[in-house]
Every structure is written in C-alpha cells, then in structure tokens.
Amino acid sequence: MLCGSTNWTATGLCAQSNNSIIVESPELAADYFAYWKRLKKDTEDADGVATQLQGKELRDADKAENNLHELTDDAGNPSGDIQVWFSPNTAQKSVPRSKKGGTPKAPPTPPDLARVFERIENAKQGVLFLAFIPGNPSIISKLKETYNAKRKQKQLFSLRGAATSPDPASLFRVDLYHRSGISDATVRAVANPPDTRGASAGVSSVAGFFATFAQWEAEIYKIGHAVIHDKILVIDPFTDDSVVVTGSHNLGFKASYTNDENMVIIRKDRQVAAAYAAHVLDVYEHYRWRWKLQEPIRNAFQKLKEANSKSKPADLWRQAMEEVGPAVIKKAWQKLVPDDTWQDFYVNNRDFLAAEDNFWSSFGGVGISSGTPRDLVK
Q1: Quick check: 267 and 240 in contact, CB under 8 A?
Q2: 364 in helix, strand or coil?
Q3: Does domain 7-97+106-360 have CATH number 3.30.870.10?
Q4: Whole-angstrom Cα distance, residue 10 to residue 84?
Q5: How many CB atoms lie within 10 A of CB 29?
Q6: Predicted structure pTM score
Q7: Is 170 in contact with 191 (CB distance < 8 Å)?
Q8: 249 with 132: CB under 8 angstroms?
Q9: CA angle 58-61-66, nearest 5°?
C-alpha cells in the first residue's frame, strides 16, 4: 500500500516538497480498496449530477473508524500500529460558519481530526509539522491551543513548522513568537510580525534567494501554486509514544467536510517517526534563512503597497528589491563566525533551549534538560 501527499505529476514530483510511504499490509490495502469501491459507487449513484456526489451513504461509511493494524519491522518484531481515516466524513458538505454579528460558534470537529487533536493534546516533548494550506480550524489552531496550555502549565514544549501559505500561521502572531526557557516555538508565517517579547527567526512560509552573488544564483523556488505540499504531523518522534500523521488530507476541517481524502496515523514506530522528523526539519531549515533574509524586502514592499495602492504588486516588489536588496545582500553573511565562539549562544542560553534539547534528545520520553521560565538572554 502506497500513500502520502505526492501527486503523480511532473510538478508534484519535481517542484514540490512531498512524501510517500509504502506499507506492506494486506489489511490496510483492503481498507483502501473498500474506500475506492465506495467512491466508485457514489459516483455512479450521482449519475452525472454534481450536487449528488459525496452522498450520505459515502459519508456515513467514511465516518466509521477503521481497525488498527499491527506493524512489524524488517526482523519481524512488533513496530507499532497504523490506522487509516477517509473523508468526507461529516453530515454537512461544508464547514458551518457563524453568521455575521452572531455569537461565534465552533463547528463540530470531524472524527478523523478529533483523533489527531487527541494525539496533539497528549504530546510530551513537542511537535513538527509541514502543511500546504490547511485552513481554519485545523491542526494550526489546535497547536496554538495546545502550546498555550503547555506554556500556562510551565511545561517544556518545542514546536517547529513550515507551510506554503503564510495565512495558516497567523494565529501564532503573538503567542508563538515568544521563546522562553519553558517553551520554544519558532513557527512564523506573518508578513510583518511584531518584534516584541523575544521574537525569533523561525519561519513557516516559503522564499527563495532573490539575487545572484558569489556562487549563489537567484532561485526559482515556486512553480505552480504549491511549494510545500506535504501534509505531515510528527509528535514525540524519539519516544516510545511517537506519532506520525500523513496522507493526502490537508489537516484542516475543510478537507474532512468537503474533500475525498485519506489520512494515516502511525503510532510507536520510532524509525518511521525519526525519518519524518528529519524530513520536516530539512524543509523547515531550507526556508528559514531565506524567509528571514527576505524580511526587509517584504517590509519595504508592504510600505510601498500602502502608499501606492493602485500600482501592480509585481512592480512594487521590483522596486523594493532595487531599494533594499543590495543592503540585504551586504548583510547576508554578517553573523557567520569563523571560530568556535558560535557555540557561545547555545552555552549561554541552555535554559532557553531546554525545550528543543528535550525534543531531539528525549530517550524514551525522558528529556535531558530542565528549563526555567525566562526569556532569551541577549
């Protein structure tokens, strides 16, 4: 059984960040085949009438929880379990929204995401994620809620993430910009975030290097709409309670209410969790510096846009590049240190980095650091 986020197109394979996983399980394959047959019958029953697609029979069947299937490693030893969820799995065909002027009311949580949210709430060391455009509500809003709860309880908790669109992480504008000894969250995808309360350089949106200098070439970093097309959640990967969530599901309510999607939850397989953790960090770190480097240009672009509302965005971006770009290039390498003093930051801020230490060095769930509630030492 092969699943994941990869679209089998030239763009999906060559121009996007994606993942695929092969699971040798006849039982899991049977779940997928049953879903395929349900989709086929639903299409036939609709008889060409688009509004009749994704009918009640399909939705009720998708809502039912599939069995957990035990996994084994190459040596035949137990290696956790896997479960698949399918959508659409709600009674309604779209996410219900509150009426304007009325009391905001949270839409019912779909059954697949309810299980994912439960895993997030039970996270001990931290979470990594990659997302395309999950929408709202989604794992993003749940991560914010969980982060706030962990911080309130003064628990160490690390969070890293990246997304194609800057919109999903706007929820983190305040709470997740603050880094301290008890919590470390560098999720960021806000065009002009406030530089307050110890804001960090973490990013969760995409950018490319914008000019040619030294041996760098200007990067073509976006072909088509998607850049990060992964849909991945990794929880406590280096513990015996590791969780990996992946598949085609965008990890938001809209996918569960509206789309034909699949989502697998893999538990207690540390090899798989470690592999996914490495992939998430690889993507995260790739865009982190580029996004930070672009920040002065984005700020200049925003000011030009406010002052010239009728101008074409492309023209304003070129103007911002011409005005600010040379200074950015000049400062690009200013913080590189040729000797071992680059390590001083990590020595002087052990408490500040405790959450991250625990995440990457949590042996069986036991971290190696103990943080204190203080902010970054500058």
Answers
A1: no
A2: coil
A3: yes
A4: 27
A5: 14
A6: 0.84
A7: no
A8: no
A9: 140
Q: Rounded CA gap, 144 and 151, in Å?
A: 10
As a whole number, mean pLDDT of residues 49-75 equals 95
The string of DSSP codes covering 65-82 is PPPPEEEE-TTS-EEEEE
- Residue whose C-alpha is closest to residue 17's, from 231, 278, 208, 259: 231
Cβ-contact 267, 80 below 8 angstroms: yes
Closest CA to 157 of 139, 179, 173, 138: 179
Provide the edge-to-edge strand list for the sheet that holds 126-131.
Answer: 69-72, 78-87, 261-267, 243-247, 232-235, 126-131, 157-163, 183-185
Nearest partner of 294 among 356, 208, 220, judged by Cα: 208
> Residue 169 pLDDT > 50, yes or no?
no
Q: Which residues neighbour 155 within 8 Å (Cβ) at sequence distance 6 or greater?
A: 182, 183
pLDDT at 177: 39
Burial (CB < 10 A; 0-12, 13-18, 19+), residue 365, is middle
Token digits for 319?
Answer: 């103007």
- Within 10 angstroms of residue 357's Cβ, the number of other Cβ atoms is 21
Q: What average pLDDT does the chain have?
A: 81
Percent of the chain beyond pLDDT 90?
43
DSSP secondary-structure letter at 185?
A: E
Given a contact cutoff of 8 angstroms between Cβ atoms, the answer to whether 89 and 112 are in contact is yes
How far apart CA 222 and CA 101 sit, in angstroms, is 39
Q: How far apart are CA 276 and CA 245, in angstroms?
A: 10
**Domain-by-domain residue ranges, the chain?**
7-97+106-360
- Whole-number CA gyration radius for the chain: 22
Give the number of other CB atoms < 10 A from CB of residue 214: 8
